[in-house]
């Protein structure tokens, strides 16, 4: 390893990515065809938020690795690069490298597994299924691959085959907790598709009993978000939220449009419809607002709560944070945004509504609503990566409780917002598509464009960050509306948590 590479690695250890980029750039100048140097530079740029630039270096590294792999037939490093590109949500780039790697060495199990996952995230269902089958051929006794293949079969409409596969998996007494958890979740979803409603919750509750034992779940602070919301309800008052409401902000720091709600309320559907409009660019599930919160904390030397930090902020600080937001957005997307309206869809930024309103009091907000009973059912059925928010959705009762906590926050803050907002119902989008979305486009001061009705065609084959990525790549369907009625008996335990919101949002009992 060269001295420049050593210095770069040391900077990475210190999480000083600016310095790491400087050293890795020097190393790349000395060794322009070294794949490790290119990979380290690309990763460091991505960590800095310069995703477009970083991915270009990772792609170059991947091609250099493949060149070596063709001689050695060792595709391990190439598949590591696929992992990296998937981490940065570059699934098209990951697919390009993974397909070549599998061609070089078709006997490598991990290659087909990654290929199946990559195709799946790009909504290429047939190709995903073929890769999943090939992976299982190479390891026919793998529970992980059996569960993966069942998921791919279900996505391609082969629900009976998927059910039989998962029922067989669950008979294995040697399953790990994670395997048993995932198999139960997937089987519940498949039984729901098949209309075998009396069996669904047995599997969901079985998964819920296992969930607390999962290492990734144990690592999360389950009390973090509920405590945060309780503090926010008292700390974000009208005075704080309205502090910068009458400010004329610079033209190069415009306010984005924010698309928020609770998980599984239709934010991804709405995002894809709006993204089909030529004058809108969607930032899909990003860390833009989280990064702004971290920058505010840095400016405040880590002193005080978020609301206290905002109270002490002057106008120069607000302008700095707006500029910081746009710097991060442009680093993530390069020139792709152009002159289009930026739509920031990060669903659970609902929690950060106070911060958003303070920094962007001139923003517009589209807030999604859906029948609370359907929301909770969909959340409880979904398998999500563990975070301080998603670990609230691992049991039936905690799902309802968390929904109530977040929506209580919304009801508390919405009358104090200086942002213009519109509440948009998922059910209206499904049953009354054009009139409903015309209201949204009017709210955004955009003309109606008939192309938005073909949103599912644009969604097919592209990466979408939300767990509902496969559902928005097909025409609208109404089967998810009122799905809770199949499980009426299960709601006795959670209706006390939900009734306030069922009534407030005008849903029938």
Automatic annotation (TrEMBL):
<keyword id="KW-0802">TPR repeat</keyword>
<dbReference type="InterPro" id="IPR027417">
    <property type="entry name" value="P-loop_NTPase"/>
</dbReference>
<dbReference type="InterPro" id="IPR011990">
    <property type="entry name" value="TPR-like_helical_dom_sf"/>
</dbReference>
<dbReference type="Pfam" id="PF13181">
    <property type="entry name" value="TPR_8"/>
</dbReference>
<dbReference type="Pfam" id="PF13469">
    <property type="entry name" value="Sulfotransfer_3"/>
</dbReference>
<dbReference type="InterPro" id="IPR019734">
    <property type="entry name" value="TPR_rpt"/>
</dbReference>
<dbReference type="InterPro" id="IPR026634">
    <property type="entry name" value="TPST-like"/>
</dbReference>
<keyword id="KW-0808">Transferase</keyword>
<feature type="repeat" description="TPR">
    <location>
        <begin position="109"/>
        <end position="142"/>
    </location>
</feature>
<protein>
    <submittedName>
        <fullName>Tetratricopeptide repeat protein</fullName>
    </submittedName>
</protein>
């Amino acid at each position: 390893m060269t001295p420049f590479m050593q210095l770069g690695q040391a900077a990475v250890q210190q999480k000083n990515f600016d310095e790491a980029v400087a050293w890795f750039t020097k190393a790349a100048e000395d060794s322009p065809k070294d794949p490790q140097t290119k990979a380290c530079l690309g990763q460091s740029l991505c960590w800095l938020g310069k995703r477009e630039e970083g991915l270009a270096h990772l792609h170059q590294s991947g091609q250099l690795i493949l060149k070596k792999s063709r001689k050695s037939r060792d595709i391990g490093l190439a598949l590591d690069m696929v992992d990296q590109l998937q981490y940065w949500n570059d699934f098209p780039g990951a697919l390009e490298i993974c397909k070549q790697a599998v061609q070089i060495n078709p006997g490598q199990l991990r290659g087909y597994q990654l290929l199946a996952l990559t195709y799946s995230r790009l909504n290429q269902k047939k190709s995903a299924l073929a890769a999943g089958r090939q992976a299982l051929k190479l390891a026919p006794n793998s529970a992980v691959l059996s569960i993966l293949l069942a998921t791919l079969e279900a996505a391609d409409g082969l629900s009976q085959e998927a059910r039989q596969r998962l029922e067989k998996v669950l008979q294995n007494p040697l399953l790990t907790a994670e395997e048993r958890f995932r198999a139960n979740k997937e089987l519940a979803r498949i039984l729901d598709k098949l209309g075998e409603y009396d069996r669904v919750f047995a599997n969901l509750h079985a998964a819920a009993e296992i969930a607390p034992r999962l290492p990734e779940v144990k690592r999360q602070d389950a009390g973090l978000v509920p405590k945060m919301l309780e503090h926010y309800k008292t700390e974000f008052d009208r005075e704080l939220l309205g502090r910068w409401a009458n400010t004329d902000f610079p033209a190069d720091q415009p306010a984005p449009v924010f698309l928020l709600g609770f998980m599984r309320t239709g934010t991804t559907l709405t995002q894809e419809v709006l993204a089909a409009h030529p004058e809108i660019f969607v930032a899909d599930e990003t860390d833009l607002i989280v990064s702004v919160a971290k920058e505010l904390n840095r400016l405040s030397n880590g002193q005080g709560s978020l609301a206290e930090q905002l109270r002490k902020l002057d106008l120069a600080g607000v302008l700095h944070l707006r500029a910081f937001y746009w710097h991060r957005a442009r680093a993530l997307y390069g020139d792709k945004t152009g002159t289009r309206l930026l739509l920031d869809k990060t669903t659970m930024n609902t929690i950060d509504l106070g911060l958003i309103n303070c920094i962007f009091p001139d923003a517009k907000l589209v807030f999604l609503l859906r029948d609370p009973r359907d929301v909770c059912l969909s959340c409880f059925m979904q398998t999500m990566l563990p975070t301080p928010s998603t670990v609230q959705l691992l049991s039936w009762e905690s799902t309802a409780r968390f929904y109530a906590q977040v929506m209580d926050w919304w009801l508390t803050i919405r009358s104090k917002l200086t942002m213009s907002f519109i509440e948009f119902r998922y059910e209206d989008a499904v049953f009354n598509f054009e009139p409903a979305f015309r209201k949204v486009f009017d709210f955004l001061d955009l003309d109606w464009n008939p192309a938005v009705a073909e949103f599912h065609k644009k969604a097919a084959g592209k990466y979408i960050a939300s767990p509902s990525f496969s559902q928005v790549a097909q025409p609208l369907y109404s089967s998810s509306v009122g799905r809770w009625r199949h499980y009426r008996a299960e709601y006795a335990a959670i209706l006390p948590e939900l009734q306030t919101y069922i009534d407030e949002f005008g849903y029938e009992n």
